[in-house]
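For the sake of clarity, the format in which proteins appear in this thesis is described at this point. The fold follows as a row of integers, each naming the local backbone shape at the matching residue. One such record is shown here in full, so that the layout can be seen directly:
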Amino acid sequence: MGFKCGIVGLPNVGKSTLFNALTETSSAEAANYPFCTIEPNSGIVSVPDKRLNLLSNLAKSQKTIPAQMQFVDIAGLVSGASKGEGLGNKFLSHIREVDAIIHVVRCFENTDITHVDNTINPLRDTETIDTELMLADLESLERQAQNLSKKAKSNDINAKNDLVLMRKLTEFLSDGIQLRLANLTDVEKTRIKTFNLLTSKPVLYACNVSEDDASNGNNFTKNIFDKARTENCDSIIISGSIESEIAILEETEKKEFLKDLNLEESGLNRLISTGFSLLDLITFFTVGPKETRAWTIKNNSTAPEAAGIIHTDFQKGFIRAETISYNDYLNFKSEQAAKDAGRMRVEGADYIVKDGDIFHFRFNV
């Protein structure tokens, strides 16, 4: 499991409540006080995909196995976290280990649930988190630059180039610009991944609202959606209280419950699906009588790389990929019918995987 989304936010915004609902467990204590989550809780969740069951039914598969993602519930950050406030250094290190950040923002009023700043102001809350992550990145860059200085003095070209890039990144951060929003070349964007900086990670804002605001949001969510648009990132509305109730219901009961609330799908499904896109992931399938399975891979990956997701031997000995698009499989109702209609393609090692591809890999080891 190589893809992790970290659930981040101030204390008491609903992170652990959402995590519990995501994993349908109570493994993360959801208490009304800061820092109830000391060690990050981690859970594997299935990625909702309607295509999977349709393919499985057509193939009459014995098993249906969805793609999966890992979510990590990280304890609440506070102002001063970059200097160690509220066990901040430890929590920031946990964020470094994830691939993307789901920033949960409190967009509900409730006098029974305390707020670390005593008032509800989602924009202020996001700015607090942003500032702490930027300060932590500045400190990290300074430390990494010191370590590279000796190599640069010995005419190490890579070290010299990295130092130039680090100075550029430091200027962005000093100007209050998060690195995911910085104007960088494709080469620079690739390079900074090795620096493991917090503000370079993609972000999704999850606006946690009361049950009454789950359908249409409120003024708080409008402000966060506007902020997300300016940052060219996604935002969703989700109600932790609703999701907690849904998590313990049977599938048919879930549908009725959502219908009564005028919701087409659960907020958690949208959260998972959007998180999947946030990580720039796509899905390919293997379909057969024993099992139909969804596999996860980075966008723009090659056929041999997809084969390697299933087994390293498949990639080492890759010969070709027999490929049927999802739509063709669905239209012709079976693999054989798609073959007979000439809709099965034979793709080589340079083929770029498309979302929904159905593969049968030929290999020789």
Q: What stands out?
A: Residues 284 and 354 are 8 Å apart (CA to CA). The radius of gyration is 23 Å. The first strand starts at residue 4 and ends at 8.
